[in-house]
Amino acid sequence: MTESVHIVGPQFSNFVRSVQLCCEEKGIPYSLGAEIAGHPMALHSAEHYALHPFGKVPILLHGERRLVETASICRYLDAAFEGPALQPEATWQRAQVDQWSGLLALYVDQALVRRYLLEFVFPKGEGGTVRLDAVAAAQPEVVRNINLLEQQLAEGDYLVGDDFTIADAIAAPMLDYLAGMPAAKDILAETPRLMAYIERLRARPAVAKVLVAPDLGART
After folding, report:
1. Taking Cα atoms as reference points, which of 133, 143, 136, 148 lies closest to residue 111?
2. Which end of the chain is more exposed for a tag (fewer CB within 10 A), N or C?
3. Residue range 97-108, pLDDT digits in tens
4. How many helices and strands (H and E) does the chain possess?
5. What are the domain boundaries of the chain?
6. Mapping DSSP to helix (H, G, I), strand (E, B) and coil, where does residue 205 land?
7. pLDDT, tens digit, 9 for 90 and up, residues 25-41
8. Spacing of C-alpha 197 from chain mean position
9. Buried b (16+ CB within 10 A) or exposed e, 120-147
10. CA 144, CA 151: separation in Å to the nearest integer?
């Protein structure tokens, strides 16, 4: 089995960045991009659907193996490669990491990224303007979700205790994007633990390497 992996997907995707973070934290060699064996793969093409039945990213390629869904990919990387553990050994704490990974990927991402941040990044209003009504409608759920994270961070430096885990790898890209949005400044000002957590994440070498300004021109 090859020692390196390939992450299929554009680097601006928060979930692609989560997989990158796991690779960086564990020291796993990887390549990245919407291509297979050096050949470009158009997103939502027949080739894409052959790799992921719902046409999503990221997709992990490891030799002849193919794996989809961010949390599953991250758990595989943690188990299959040497390097710092990204999951606790204790059963209950590991279940907590799994729980938060699922909550983040299913619900927090929908509230923060799909229904809020993307309204600013890829405006769908007339003439390419931001739909302020859509932003206003999404904001209460943004507030509810960041308050949930604020409460959880009373338990430790990271989402599950005091060690960086897969849950933090999933949270970091979406929170970094949120903290970079001027419109979210006042919302985040009400969650000091969350803001301190974001800065703690950004200070990690792996996070600083991965959370770079996105090349949105790569979107297809």
Report:
1. 143
2. N
3. 999 999 999 999
4. 11, 6
5. 5-85+211-218, 91-204
6. helix
7. 999 999 999 888 778 88
8. 15
9. eeeeeeeeeeeeeebbeebbebbbebbe
10. 11
Long-range contacts of 75-81 (CB under 8 A, 24+ apart): 75/166, 77/5, 77/19, 77/22, 77/23, 77/26, 77/28, 78/22, 78/26, 78/166, 81/26, 81/28
What is the per-residue burial (b if ≥16 Cβ within 10 Å, else e) of 156-172? eebbbeebbbbbbbbbb
Please check whether the domain covering 5-85+211-218 is classified as CATH 3.40.30.10. yes
5 torsion bin: left (phi>0), alpha (psi -120 to 50), beta (else): beta
Closest CA to 188 of 138, 149, 133: 149
For the domain bounded by 91-204, which CATH number is listed? 1.20.1050.10
Question: Of 48, 23, 54, 168, which is closest to residue 104 (Cα–Cα)?
Answer: 168
Rounded to the nearest 10 degrees, what angle do helices 91-103 and 70-80 cross at? 150
Six token digits for residue 97: 């990491």
Residue-wise pLDDT tens digits, 150-168: 999 998 999 999 999 999 9
With beta carbons less than 8 A apart as the criterion, state whether 31 and 58 touch. Answer: no
Q: Find out whether 56 and 68 touch, Cβ atoms under 8 Å.
A: yes
Residue 45's nearest CA partner among 59, 31, 32 is: 59
Residue 134 CA to residue 139 CA, distance in Å, equals: 9
